[in-house]
Amino acid sequence: MELADAFAAEGLLAVVGAGGKKSTLYALAADLDRAVLTATVRIPPFDGHVERLAVTGEPGGVVESNDAWPLGVVPGRDGDRDRYLGYGTATVDDLAEATDAPVLVKADGARRRWLKAPADDEPQVPAAASTVVPVASARAVGEPLDAERVHRPERIAALTGLAAGEEIRPGDVATVLTHERGGLKGVPDGAAVRPLVNMVDDADLEATAREIAAEVVAHPRVEAVVLGRMDLRKVVDVVE
């Protein structure tokens, strides 16, 4: 299945969680004929993944006159740090209203970890989101619950009942992806939820990912689960 079809990439698509948000956004931007790539949280430079990058406080005006796709829009640099700031969610809502191109949004941060549960002020999902993609890595399974591979492990402990240092199981990843204080936090009413189990790099990880997906897809809020390897822009399967 094509990436755009797997993720139902129409309207405003917001990616949250950990374990491949940026690679998912970049893969979708490359797969779509026209797309706008942006963020509501800080994001590393992504100039090489878009045809044009505009630094602007008025992204809606830029997208209306744009003829180079995919287009990236950001409000500016994060001080002297090598990353861009994100827009407020209302600005991204207005941006989506100004274009019929899919708007791809990084709406969460995870410091390159493989699994996370959000803090009180996370994620930053725009109200206009038509699809939300909570992400987790299949590689988190078998790892201890600690800060090396997990962002905010104490919050995952609260959701799953795991103790610090205990081994993460497939069911724990499924719980995080489908919890109201996990992958479903901040999802607008009516938005489709299509979680991604990423880093399905071999047969063993595929078996793990399928075990996770079987629990996740049973949740009434979930439309389908994508198994993928986003570094290769590859969909392994879509579990419905």
Produce the secondary structure layout.
Elements: H1 3-6, E1 12-17, H2 21-31, E2 36-39, E3 52-55, H3 59-64, E4 71-74, H4 89-97, E5 103-106, E6 115-116, E7 131-137, E8 150-151, H5 153-160, H6 170-178, E9 192-193, E10 196-198, H7 203-216, E11 225-229, E12 234-239
Parallel strand pairs: 1-5, 1-7, 2-4, 2-5, 3-4, 6-8, 7-9, 7-10, 10-11
Antiparallel strand pairs: 11-12
Helix pairs in contact: 6-7
How does this structure look, described?
The chain is of the alpha/beta class and 240 residues long. The chain has a single domain (6-35, 102-239), classed as Rossmann fold (3-Layer(aba) Sandwich). It is built from 7 helices and 12 strands. It has helices spanning 3-6, 21-31, 59-64, 89-97, 153-160, 170-178, 203-216; strands at 12-17, 36-39, 52-55, 71-74, 103-106, 115-116, 131-137, 150-151, 192-193, 196-198, 225-229, 234-239. Strands 1, 2, 3, 4, 5, 7, 9, 10, 11 and 12 form a 10-stranded mixed sheet that branches.
Output the keywords.
single chain; 240 residues; alpha/beta; Rossmann fold; ten-stranded mixed β-sheet; two-stranded parallel sheet; 7 helices; 25% helix
- The averaged pLDDT comes out at 97
Classified by CATH, the class is: Alpha Beta
**Poorly predicted segments:** none
- Given the C-alpha coordinates, what overall shape results? globular
CATH architecture assignment name: 3-Layer(aba) Sandwich
Percent in helix: 25-40%
DSSP, total strands: 12
User: What is the total number of structural domains?
Assistant: 1
Distance between the termini: 13 Å
Oligomer: single chain
Beta-strand content estimate: 15-25%
CATH topology: Rossmann fold
Succession of helices and strands? HEHEEHEHEEEEHHEEHEE
Number of helices: 7
Summarize the main sheet. 10 strands, mixed
- Please state the structural category: alpha/beta
Radius of gyration: 17 Å
